[in-house]
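Supplementary Note 2. Why include the ligand at all?

Several targets in our set were suspected to adopt different conformations when bound, so apo predictions alone were not considered sufficient. For every target with a known small-molecule partner we therefore ran a joint prediction. The input for 6-O-phosphoryl inosine monophosphate is given below.
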Amino acid sequence: MPNTVVIGMQWGDEGKGKIVDLLCPAFDAVVRFQGGNNAGHTVKFGDRHFALHLVPSGVLHPGKKCVLGNGMVIHPASLFEELSGLVAAGVEVEGRLWISRRAHVILPQHIELDAARERARGGDAIGTTARGIGPAYEAKAGRYGLRVRDLSAHGLERLVEVALEVIGPQLEHLGTETAGPGETVAICRDWAARLDPYLGDVEELLNDWIDAGESLLFEGAQGTLLDLDHGTYPYVTSSSASVGGAATGTGVPPSRLDGVLGVLKAYTTRVGGGPFPTELAGGAGELLRERGNEFGTTTGRPRRCGWFDAVVARHTRRINGVDAIALTKLDVLDDLDEILVCTGYRLGGRVVRGLPSSLEELATAEPVYRRLPGWRETTVGTLDHDRLPARARAYVAAVEEEVGAPVALISSGPRREETVVRELPVVGRLVPGGAAGIRAHRDAAV
Ligand code: GDP
Ligand code: IMO
Ligand code: MG
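The joint prediction is reproduced in token form.
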């Protein structure tokens, strides 16, 4: 039974939440492996609407097992708030959420440091979500971080002291006052008690479940261009948002990962700072933002918008070994006369097709565009590839050709039930039950 990884192929917000929610009935468990509550994954079906940040999108399917892996950074207070919201909305969580004891904790001081640093950077700010993600991963790599299991350790006081010895002076330097060790220890103890029911030996459990023939769906957060190694550094997040993270962030070895579904928006968006070669200033960008409702799920910030960038998508197809693509938000392009796809960058006198590692080159790259005619009719809610306008099918084919992977799913609206599921052999390799199974879940009454 396949274990499949869902990965964002751009700068995040590709629609991963929607795709994971659609696919997860075919799997036994849904696993987050990196990031924290910087993520905002929207799931809609019928008239229901959920925004998930730390909890896997599988939680909306009764009985589905949900796991937070060791590669994540968890701010317990935000987790409790999210869980209460789910319970208030009638979602039963008890008994089906497992949190790795090895996951790292976001302390209040990490959040303060994230915000203070961004203020100090002024015009060079990364544009972080201010959730303390960078400082928490920094503490992990610097070996002064606290893991979930440490919150209930006898040596908690000393661990907090060591952490604050590093962070305290940085906060002081930036003019921010913070809680002392005593207060921080009290917060940690409260968190420990409330986290306790969810803690598990996740690394063992996941491998045991695979041994028993179960299938796991790995839910990526952020996107490959925000990956610490493979993204547009330093305008990235601090985790491994590409496929490698699914192994290091869970304890499931790469040899047990069977395939990768890459999620690609039919155009490009980015929140925060950093280079974005196909960004559209003014009218056209505004139109995409409005039609696509491109405002952050986590921070509410307007997302920067631009044309589809095949240089980016080819890079992330390769880095992740993407087997098939879920192409989202095709309907947002419905009204356009002409649609552009960037196929390469002009740099100086030459055209390159690979993604430059240099920030300066990315900032000055001039996109080379292939122009396609728009279809100028609605695709909202389309369920069959054959029913898409011919020009929309031609656009999908152009994406496949430029990126080098088949488009297996086409999202035609924000809701679970608004998705084209194509009858391709790769779907059966990635998802138990194949295309017919996904369609059955898609069409089930909600
Ligand atoms: P994620 O972070 O990758 O899960 O994506 P987000 O949920 O942050 O952002 C995607 C946004 O697009 C959400 O508001 C979704 O409801 C919406 N969305 C997803 N797929 C489609 C689609 O095919 N069409 C339209 N119009 N909206 C979509
Ligand atoms: P999902 O999972 C889009 C961006 C921030 C900023 C950079 C670093 O919903 O796709 P961080 O707070 O992580 O240190 O910020 O990364 N960013 C996201 N952009 N979608 C996300 O998550 C993001 N998570 C972080 O805007 O540019
Ligand atoms: Mg998002």
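Residues 338 and 373 are 5 Å apart (CA to CA). The first helix runs from residue 16 to 23. Comparable summaries for the other entries are listed in the accompanying table.
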